[in-house]
Amino acid sequence: MIYLDNNATSPLLPEVLEAMLPCFMEAFGNPSSIHNCGRRALAHIKEARQQVAALLGCRTTEIIFTSGGTEGDNLALKGMIRPGDHLIVSAIEHSAILSSAAWLAKQGCEVTRVVVNGNGQVEPSSIRAAIRPNTRLISVMTANNETGVLQPVEEIGRIAAEADVWFHTDAVQAAGKVPLFVDRIGCDLLTISGHKFHGPQGTGALFVRAGTPLRPLLHGGHQEKHLRPGTENVPGIVGFGRACQIARAALSNGVMENIGALRDRLEAVLVSLIPDARINGKGVPRVPNTTNILFEQVSGDALVMALDDLGVEVSRGSACSAGAADPSNVLTAMGLTGAQARSSLRFSLGKQNTLEETDAATAVVVDAVAKLREKSAMFWTA
Asked: What is the three-class DSSP state of 380?
């Protein structure tokens, strides 16, 4: 099996599992307990919080542990917006943002969805034009989960600051792939998820800048500054912290550059050998591990299934919308037709992928596309 769907989820690194194991049998205590076992668990959480804060360039007191990106996005939006407030989001956000925005609209909030250009980027001028006197929050993702296209979040952050509007960014697909410094971005809230960069599933964090008036979604205990009550998932948090530590190192030791080189090689081979293949969002900066390629006259779902049978695992887009009959809202927002969106596949690499794997995968894709096109031509001429 050649796994090239790391944006859906990435495999746990051995070093991450090794860090987690003691928390299942030795430091298993409740971190709120004052006895020795509880204090050991709390010490592990404190270390993990430092590792997460180091990845984002913030204070440890500004990190709130969550169960992942969906919870973090929901907390950021629903914890900041009240009826009568105005929220600005982009048209290419993850469903956790768009669904939360739709829910808020039903509660009496005003929501503006800003369109993107043909490369899949939000124009900062569109954000500025959308701001109203009652605008309370802007939420624009750092990197798109389907195309990998990076958004101009630093400029949007400056616009938000000038307008005295709170700014949230969903950085789930950017964390561990590009440097993230909250002060440089200028965000007040930022979401990340562990399983997108080789941490455990069900883990994540929300950065909440000091002074941000965030309200909790849940009520109960005192954990996470009362913003996310409930006994902490100590093994998951420890694994998440270790994954953040590894991800931070990968940004400076050449690991991500190597992954980017593999992605570029995969793109170049596929586009050169497959007629009418093109890269969606190629003209702007993207995270180094992701490419979204349009294969004209090929069913994306049929190609995913054919590749799976041949040992190559990819996807048509977001795992949260897998199986949906509708074309990708991200790709159609970029100007692709419904048919073109359904003919596009996402390839997302991880730290476990090798040159040999990606070369083998490209050969399989080239052959599979040719065979599917041949079958399609035979059907229409029959």
From this structure: helix
Residue spans of the domains in the chain: they are 2-9+254-381, 14-250
The CATH architecture assigned to 14-250 reads 3-Layer(aba) Sandwich (3.40)
- Residues in the chain, overall count: 382
Q: Which amino acid is present at 370? A: A
> Could you give the residue numbers annotated as active site?
320
The single-letter code of the amino acid at 322 is A
Tokens of 316: 């048509």
**pLDDT per residue as tens digits for the range 20-41:** 999 999 889 999 999 999 999 9
Tokens describing residue 299: 């069913």
Per the CB < 8 A criterion, the answer to whether 3 and 11 are in contact is: yes
What residue type is 268 in one-letter code? Answer: A
- Please name every residue paired with 112 in a beta bridge, in sequence order, or none if there are none: 88
Task: List the beta strands (DSSP E) in 142-232.
Answer: 166-170, 189-193, 204-208
Q: How far is CA 33 from CA 23, 28, 60, 226, in A?
A: 15, 11, 21, 17
The model's pTM is 0.95
Pairing between β-strand 189-193 and β-strand 166-170 as defined by DSSP bridges: parallel
Alpha-carbon span 90 to 49, nearest angstrom: 30
Residue in the structure block whose two tokens are 């897998």: 322
Q: How far is CA 352 from CA 79, 145, 197, 255, 355, in A?
A: 37, 19, 11, 11, 10
**C-alpha to C-alpha distance for 98 and 108, rounded to whole angstroms:** 16
Burial of 317 per CB tally in 10 Å (0-12, 13-18, 19+): buried
**Amino acid letter for position 294:** L
Amino acid at site 330? V
Q: What are phi and psi of 164, to 5 degrees?
A: 60, 45
* Token reading at 114: 């800003």
Architecture of the domain defined by 2-9+254-381? Alpha-Beta Complex (3.90)
- The dihedrals phi and psi of 204, each to the nearest 5 degrees, come to 180, -175
Residues 170, 96: contact at Cβ < 8 Å? Answer: yes
End-to-end CA distance of the chain: 35
Q: What is the pLDDT of residues 302-336, one digit of tens each?
A: 999 999 999 999 999 766 555 556 899 999 999 99
